[in-house]
Amino acid sequence: MTEQEMQAKIETINAANNKIISDFQADNDRKLKGFIAEGVFNDLKTGFQKRFDEQDLELAKLKSPAIKSLDIEPTLYTKAFGKYLRKQTLAPEEQKILQIGQPTYAGVLAPPEYAAELLHYAYVQHPFRQVANIRKTDQERVYLHTNDAFGVATWEAELATKTETTGLTYARTTVIPQEMKVLYKATQKMLEDSQFNLEAEIAYAAGRAFGNLESTAFYSGNGTTTGPYGISIDATIVADHTDVNTDNTIAFDDLIDVQYLLESPYVQNASWVMNRSLLGVIVTLKSAATPVYLLQPNLQQGQPPLILGSPVYTWSAMPAVVAVAGGDTIPGTGGIYLMYGDFRQAYTIIDRVGITIQRLNELYAAEGEIGFYVRARVGGAVVIPPAVQMLCNIA
What we know:
Helix content: 25-40%
Mean pLDDT: 79
CATH architecture of the domain at 117-151 and 162-275 and 315-395: Alpha-Beta Complex
Structural class: alpha+beta
Number of helices: 12
Distance between the termini: 51 Å
Number of strands: 17
Largest sheet: 7 strands, mixed
Shape: globular
CATH class of the domain at 117-151 and 162-275 and 315-395: Alpha Beta
Strand order of the largest sheet: 6-17-13-7-10-9-8
CATH topology of the domain at 117-151 and 162-275 and 315-395: phage-related protein like fold
């Protein structure tokens, strides 16, 4: 797909998203005026969410890192890598090529274009890689340094004795990339069949699996046994959370409160993240003073819709809201409704350079199958907690 075709496709999807939002808000108006029944409206709401999901997924695929097809001008390394996946025996020169990229542990380092294809599928599983900061490393651990305090400036007389400004301190966060793995099996017949694209199949399956796994970890991981350190369990962010004004009810004013409680330096590049079910609630909220909906379509090409001028992303790892008596909604586990902030400053994802695939020739030989063990290492941590504000119901 050319750049022009991609931009045209993004524009088409964005226009479709805007129409979905507009149609749903119009249906909500009809419901409020008594023109349609509650049951009919709920069916319309389900259809809205399904259509929005489909468009959002297509947009995420287009906006994920561009990949280079493995079938177009493959490098010598890519050719050797493809042969390694399909055949046990490699020519000496092919073995030498693969050894160039082989790490000290078992397995063969995937070529860059193949690793990009795998990560392409991870991007479509959650939005956090779109909003957070991403760094690559070849180290076992990474130390992230941030200013903890800046000191205090003072006015100074012209001939006064100059004194040192104290109080400039730094904090250090240690991130250790954790290992993700999947193990797939393929039959000898599948490998011999030229119509079966083994490389693409492994990239698709592993990318989706890795995306689902890291999505949960970026939200609630413990930094060790359950993957990267999750943003929702950061003690500073949780302690500074904002509660909804009325228990079990999210209203227009709650989102205004969250936006204005976020510190000024982080507002310009701030965005909202929430579960899709909460978006279905917010899309119906209006200002009490004027008949203006809180969620507005974004007329800029390829951009997400806006809430109070900031883009909104949906994240399945966040708690879904549940309807209760009286038409109110409550958040799921943790009592967290949504997050708002500059996630690029708040959170850093560390990708350990290199995705390896190990071909297991003997383990499943009796079954006539070959195993493929795919592994990657990723870490993450909150770097600047004040850059994020939570809306909760945990007071």
